[in-house]
Amino acid sequence: MTSPDTAGTESAARERSEDAPLRPAAGRSSLGEVCAVLWPPPATVSLRRGPRSLRLRDRDRERDFVVLPSARRPRLLVPAGRRASAAAVRRYGEPGSVTAWAGSRALALALAAGGATVGLGGRLRVTAGPGAGDPGAGTIEAYLRSVLGYEVLVSTHLGAARANRKPVLQLLTPRGQTAGFAKISVNPLTRDLIRAERAALDTLAAGNLRALTAPRVLHHGQWRGREVLIMNALPVWRRRQGLRPGQLTAAMTELTAVGGRRRGPLAGSGYLDRLRSRLAGAPAGPDRDALGDALDVLAAAGPELSFGAWHGDWTGWNMASTAAGLLVWDWERFAPGVPVGFDPLHYQLQSDVVRRRRPPAQAARGCVRDAAACLAPFGVPAGQARLVAVLYLAELSARYLADRQAEAGARLGRPGTWLIPAIEEAVKTL
């Protein structure tokens, strides 16, 4: 193998001839879409599938990345440096399962040992144009350096198709330390979600929560017309431990009190008004009509409920239990004034569908059937638990419809195939 220091003109010419310009492409994990956001023209991005020498040159003009597991199946984009690439892989694997953790550790060791220089993963080179160091019109790295005050390298996971998919960057120092995370908007929906998360984190910071730890905002601004939110890195690398009995319940209960709790009728409530308004913004069709009819029946029943705040997407992969406490992230769906019990129901449903791989329609029916047991630790009376579960399924349905998740290709983006049938079935027996 020719070393980077001795690579000659012939080798360089061969590399250029084998490079392919990267363009946005449809489908899951579009590397082209992400690169178009992070390094827009006049920057150019080229992709190579074979081994190549990796070397960081002028930090504002040229950067090299490794595409993992390969250029044909991109799932993770990490900096080319040994320390930074190994650290990026370790951090992305830490919140996952034991199998994922073990795989990421093995891959990190291979990268730290120089695996990228002998062909591990694909090769991506970013070459910036004139003005690359301008924080407002240059590369994303130049902007981050200007607002943070120090050099960072970026890494990102390439996720599945969703309407709210956007680049979430892990920010690394050249020595491989995680400096924070940054979210970048790509459309009006992700812009609004990033702004909502900024507001949520400010609210949580003022709430002095004891049972959980949320990220802190380091910076919120705009770059090339896109919203940018930078948060500190929660210490997910600390020693993990299993949840203590009642720990999750205590954290979710404490969160409901952020902004105050109240009790009142569903009909005429601010929550029902907001839900109807969101549904009205969804595309017309049978799903929207069915959901609207179900809400009419629920409101006419005249129940009184307890209302409080919820995380909005509390799942096992958006939190980590460590020796230092419970770490919880991804607060862009946080909202006050929802029926108490939404967080535990969401946690249960998502665990059933994603981790236990239960058929979605079956899991949605189970969410209603098992609501009394799920919500008993939160003080929700058994007579109200099924109603709260139906409202939660309606909340999730309205979100998917308003966000147009089906149009974006999300796997569970059509509530009419799994959520709404469970709602209609339950409404008949409430």
What does this structure look like?
This protein is of the alpha+beta class. The protein has 2 domains: 20-231, no CATH class; 247-427, Aminoglycoside 3'-phosphotransferase, Chain: A, domain 2 (Alpha-Beta Complex). It is built from 15 helices and 15 strands. The protein has a 10-stranded antiparallel sheet, with helices on both faces. The protein has a 3-stranded antiparallel sheet with strand order 11-12-15. It has a two-stranded antiparallel sheet with strand order 13-14. A hairpin with a 2-residue loop joins strand 13 and strand 14. Helix 9 (286-300) packs antiparallel against helix 13 (382-403), helix 9 (286-300) packs parallel to helix 15 and helix 13 (382-403) packs antiparallel against helix 15. The longest helix has 22 residues, at 382-403. Mean pLDDT is 85; it is low at 1-18, 24-29 and 115-119.
What is the count of helical runs? 15
Helices and strands, in order, run as HEHEEEHHEHEEEHEEHEHHEEEEHHHHHH
Helix content: 40-55%
Integer-rounded radius of gyration:
24 Å
Strands ordered across the widest β-sheet: 1-2-5-3-4-6-7-8-10-9
SS content category: alpha+beta
Question: Strand tally, please?
Answer: 15
* Largest β sheet strand count, sense and barrel closure: 10 strands, antiparallel
- End-to-end Cα distance: 71 Å
Q: What is the oligomer described by this structure?
A: single chain
Low-pLDDT stretches are: 1-18, 24-29, 115-119
What is the molecular shape?
A: globular
Mean pLDDT: 85
Strand portion, in percent? 15-25%
Work out the count of structural domains.
2
